[in-house]
Design goal:
Blueprint: H1 3-16, E1 19-27, H2 32-42, E2 46-54, E3 61-69, H3 73-90, E4 94-99, E5 104-110, H4 115-125, E6 131-138, H5 144-148, E7 154-156, H6 164-177, E8 182-185, H7 194-198, E9 204-209, H8 220-227, E10 231-238, E11 248-255, H9 262-285, E12 289-292, E13 295-298
Parallel strand pairs: 5-6, 5-8, 6-7, 8-9
Antiparallel strand pairs: 1-3, 1-4, 2-3, 9-10, 10-11, 12-13
Helix pairs in contact: 4-9, 8-9
């Protein structure tokens, strides 16, 4: 790994040691914010960020994300989680604690087009993604030199529908070998099977060229140009067994007009894809996303 990148990662790790996050989903009723805040106060934690949302204040579901700081959190984390079990049971809470010293490990899947991969690697090098990029997997060789120059392992695995079962078996093996928490599809132009997806629920983030639900499938920019669209965009979402229909994390658009060719649309679209995917990955890593059915609650 590049020495400057390694130094930044060490600095981030040190700064994050006493940071924690708590995500809660439960039936809405008065006092939940006070209850959770008091619990953290009693464990000598200082709340530094809090966001909440209710689907219906009368009879809905309540969601909250709290980021907190606590001295010697690494030593206290197990006890904090243990003490919260009874609180969660009493109030029918689904919850998740994340601690700053538990850095997620990410794999990036890419095909020929490198723009989303390059954006993610830049964000990672710059210290803006809370993850270790531990492996890049591709069905093409184009990105190898760029990836390996950063000290990241690169695995070339040719893929097509005739050998999909063997390919995915090898990919799953690599995910286990590298102990991967998050899979990022940075324009990986292969359809994943239900068997593969089932191994990684809400752990695969995809970027879809074009603006869902319009122009699903192949050649979206050509079809958008033929339709004379005035807006193009991109969607980043969790991968499910329904093609390009998983819970949406982030979307964005830009205006175009009759002067823009298909090449122009693709250039504009690639800019949107890069920033939309990077935002979605960043928010996932920062525990800002709660999946609720086929939609998401995103605490920006």
């Amino acid at each position: 790994m590049d020495e400057n990148v390694n130094m930044k990662l060490k600095q981030q790790s040190k700064q994050a040691e006493n940071r924690g996050r708590l995500l809660v989903k439960c039936p809405d009723k008065p006092g939940i914010v006070s209850l959770v805040s008091t619990f953290l106060y009693n464990h000598k934690a200082n709340i530094i960020e809090s966001s909440q949302y209710s689907s219906d204040p009368e009879n809905g579901t309540f969601f909250i994300r709290i980021e907190f700081q606590c001295e010697n959190l690494i030593e206290q984390a197990v006890q904090i989680e243990k003490d919260f079990v009874e609180v969660a049971r009493k109030h029918s809470m689904d919850y998740h604690f994340a601690f700053g010293n538990e850095r997620k490990r990410s794999a990036i899947f890419v095909s020929k087009e490198p723009h989303c991969l390059m954006e993610l690697l830049w964000e990672w090098q710059n210290g803006d993604l809370e993850t270790d990029v531990v492996v890049v997997i591709s069905n093409h060789e184009e990105a190898r030199d760029m990836v390996e120059s950063l000290g990241i392992p690169f695995h070339y695995i040719p893929a097509n529908k005739d050998i999909r079962k063997q390919v995915e078996a090898e990919q799953i093996r690599l995910m286990e070998e590298y102990n991967v928490d998050l899979l990022i599809l940075a324009r990986y132009m292969q359809i994943l099977t239900p068997d593969f997806v089932s191994h990684f629920p809400n752990q695969i983030i995809n970027i879809h060229h074009s603006f869902l639900p319009a122009f699903i499938g192949a050649r979206p920019y050509e079809r958008a140009y033929g339709r004379g669209v005035k807006l193009i965009g991109a969607t980043s979402h969790y991968v499910t067994n329904d093609l390009d229909e998983g819970p949406i994390i982030e979307q964005d658009i830009e205006r175009v007009d009759h002067r823009d060719s298909v090449i122009d649309l693709k250039k504009i679209g690639s800019r949107i894809e890069r920033r939309v995917l990077a935002k979605a990955v960043k928010w996932h890593l920062e525990n800002r996303v709660i999946v609720e059915g086929n939609k998401t609650i995103v605490f920006h």
